[in-house]
Amino acid sequence: MIVEFSVLDTELYSVEHISNSPLDVSMINNFETNDNSRGLEYYLKDAALFDEENNLSRTYLIKDKATQELVGYFSLRTGLITRQIEDEKFDSIPALELANFAVNTNYKKNHPDIKLLGFYIFKNFIIPLAECFCKYIGIHALYIYALPNDRLIEHYSKMGFSRLPPEQEQFVQFHVKPKYDDGCIFMYQIL
């Protein structure tokens, strides 16, 4: 049985799974990020549909209801947080990975009066969806691998993410983090 989740649309924006419809393809082709996060742009344009079709992650597009522009996107997938609790003992916590999260710089250029889009998407779409998943499967935390940029780390901290103590962060860096997130900073929050 497939469980359908209610739509998380707001007054201004809608959210939906990525598709290869002509409208989605056109929006995705016009999606841009800043220079520091071109990997997020690459993922959306070249890998997100493959991951969606192969059940590796779910990518959600945020669209402006009035203009039908692509505002941003995020990808979620299941995972776990492994932490060392004693010398040779480890513990794991079921978690949800916010694998990709970006706002369209073209949308921001077209609407310079709209501020805090990342916070808006996080608060109105990502957290409610994560909380919905918690009702069906065991998820205790949400985590990300943030680009190593002080402003971005501070931004995620304001959204409620925390860093691990240095020793535990180093453990994650060497044992858990996917190769494509090399150099990124592990951050998490309890749901």
Task: For the structure shown, list the relevant keywords.
about 190 residues, alpha+beta, 6 strands, about 35% helix, globular
Output the structural class: alpha+beta
Order of helices and strands: EHHEEEHHEHHE
Q: Enumerate the spans where pLDDT stays under 50 for 5 or more consecutive residues.
A: none
What is the topology, as strand order, of the major beta sheet?
1-2-3-4-5-6
The gist of it:
The radius of gyration is 17 Å and the shape is globular.
Can you give a write-up of this model?
The protein is an alpha+beta fold and 191 residues long. It has helices at 22-29, 38-53, 105-110, 117-134, 150-158, 166-175, and strands at residues 13-17, 58-64, 70-84, 90-103, 141-146, 185-190. Strands 1-2-3-4-5-6 form a six-stranded mixed sheet, with helices on both faces. It is globular, with a radius of gyration of 17 Å. The model has no long low-confidence stretch (mean pLDDT 88).
List the helices and strands and how they pair.
Elements: E1 13-17, H1 22-29, H2 38-53, E2 58-64, E3 70-84, E4 90-103, H3 105-110, H4 117-134, E5 141-146, H5 150-158, H6 166-175, E6 185-190
Parallel strand pairs: 4-5
Antiparallel strand pairs: 1-2, 2-3, 3-4, 5-6
